[in-house]
Structures are given as C-alpha cells and as structure tokens.
Design goal:
six-stranded mixed sheet, Rossmann fold, 10 helices, 36% helix, 14 strands, 312 residues, single chain, four-stranded antiparallel sheet
Length: 312
C-alpha cells in the first residue's frame, strides 16, 4: 500500500515548478520531503491531494489513482492556517470531523483528549485567534488527524514553533506512525527530518536531487565525516594536514570531511600524536551537509552550463 509519485511535472507560466518528480513512500513510514522555500514541496502535496492538477505524471495509493480514494483517506496540514479564527477551538474541531462523518460525541471526546495532551485543554472554549501561534499549530494538527486518515500530509509543520511544542508534535507524529499511519511532511529544517524520518527526498527548484532511506541519502555523497577532540586542542594540527576539510572548528571538537577511500586512521594517528584523544567518531554526513553539497553542486553545474551556452 505505497504512495507512489511518478514523473510529476507542473508549470506556472514560464516557471517549471515540478520537473519529473518521482519517489515512493512505503506504508507506515515517516517520510521527509526536503527543500528550500519555493522548491516545489507544496505543489507536490497539492497534486497528491487533488487540489491541483499536474501537467504530467501520476499519483497512486495502493496501486489506485489517489483521487479514486475517499477524501477521508487523507489528512492535510497546510503551512497556512486552515481554521476559523473567530470560532471556538473545540467547536470547530468537532465541525471538521463531522464533515468526514465522525459522530459529534466521538469527535468531541477525541478532540478533548488531544487538547489535554497538548496542554491546551483550558483553551477548548476559546476563539482560535486568542491562541499563540504554537497552540494554533497544535489545533491544526488535531483537525488533520481527528477523522482517522491513512495518510498524513503536512506542509512545514515545525515552522515558528518553540522547542517544547516541537517535541510535542514529534511525539504525536511517532504515535501516528506506531498506529500504522503513513506520514509525509515537508520541511527545510533538516535536523528535524534527520531525527524523525525513515526515508527522505531532497528537491531543488522542482527537480528531485536524491531520495531513499535516511541512511542511504546520508551515504550518497561517498564520503564520511570525523569528529575529533584532543586535550587542550586548538586544532592547529588538523589545519596543518593535507587532504582534510574542516567543516566545524569548535571549542569542544572539530568535524572534518575525508574523501572516499581516505583512511580515518591517519587522522586518528595525528590526533594521538597531538595528545590524549577525548573524542574520535567516524560518521556519515548529516542531511544538512548532504543538502548543501548536493544542491550546491547542482547549482554549480547549472552555472557552468549557462556560461558555456552564453559563449556558444
């Protein structure tokens, strides 16, 4: 029962918003759709939901076109608020659930439990506009899940939230995953994706850069990073080494990149020669580092082609 996006293309005038985007989300996954603002994330989600028509391409869920499934199959949390500002919180949650055929008593019970869990039970009778942005976001999330959708699509769910509210929303995401729901969320906050996602896709200016399990994407650059610290370290010994790029030169540790095939043991030997080794770790690059490297390389290639075209 996978969600399969295949060959999506969408143009708005002279702007190619999507250019052959393809990826698949397995049932029960938390899937991160990663890219900067304007990369094509929202357009893709709206096409999946049938709110927008693609110029080319298909979207299927369990082998059937997405639009053939009942609307109840989908839960959508837009980046912009989709709620009524002047309507009491609990009243509108029950209203939205009723649109999907959920009995009002059951919807009221479930909504009240979620409001209590999100520590805003005392806001049930308050108008939405009186709540903070973070609390409005939690109400939006409850409205998204109250009808029991199989697939949750969430557009930039963490934007503007403080760490406490982010933690609450993450825990709610993982609970939905454990209930067998499939979650797809778009974000440009790559640290959140790295913590939550089983798989990710990176999109840039309408084109898919890479996709796969989070581990596969982190390994896609073909190199590793090393985090190292020695006693009384100013990292001068690292800066003197050739073939090593320092990514982070912090007071507590340094993070360096080594090329594919290079031996981390050379750095370990140099660290041991410099003094007692307090930390030495070989790891895959973070999603943020992969994003910067892969998207930056794509931009460099385009600039090269543009220059070559201008000279031709």
């Amino acid at each position: 029962m996978a969600l399969v996006i295949e060959g999506l293309r969408k143009r708005f005038g002279s702007v190619q918003a999507l250019d052959g985007v393809s990826f698949a989300v397995q049932p029960g996954e938390v899937y991160g759709f990663l890219g900067a603002n304007g990369a094509g994330k929202t357009t893709t989600m709206r096409i999946v939901l049938g709110l927008m028509r693609a110029d080319e391409g298909t979207v299927t869920w369990d082998g059937r076109p997405a639009h053939d499934w009942p609307r109840k199959t989908w839960g959508y949390m837009p980046e912009e608020r989709g709620l009524y500002a002047k309507m009491p919180v609990l009243e509108q949650l029950v209203h939205f659930a009723a649109l999907y055929g959920i009995p009002r008593a059951a919807a009221s019970k479930d909504a009240t439990e979620w409001l209590e869990r999100f520590r805003i039970g005392d806001k049930a009778g308050a108008r939405l506009e009186t709540l903070s942005k973070g609390n409005q976001q939690k109400v939006q999330y409850i409205a998204t899940i109250l009808h029991g959708p199989d697939v949750l699509l969430m557009d930039e769910p963490f934007v503007g939230l403080d760490p406490v509210n982010v933690a609450m929303l993450k825990a709610a995401f993982l609970e939905m995953r454990d209930r067998g729901k499939t979650l797809v969320f778009s974000t440009h906050q790559l640290d959140q994706a790295e913590e939550l996602c089983d798989s990710v896709a990176i999109i840039d200016r309408g084109r898919l850069v890479t996709a796969g399990t989070t581990r596969e994407v982190r390994q896609s650059t073909g190199h590793q990073v090393i985090r190292v610290a020695t006693a009384g370290d100013d990292h001068a010994w690292l800066r003197a080494m050739t073939g090593v790029e320092i990514l982070r030169d912090g007071a507590d540790f340094a993070e360096v990149r080594v090329a594919a095939g290079a031996s981390p043991q050379l750095i370990l030997a140099a660290a041991m020669a410099n003094g007692p080794v307090l930390r030495f770790e070989v790891a895959d690059p973070s999603l943020e580092q992969v994003f910067v490297e892969r998207v930056g390389a794509l931009a460099d290639d385009e600039r090269t082609l543009a220059v070559a075209g201008a000279r031709a």
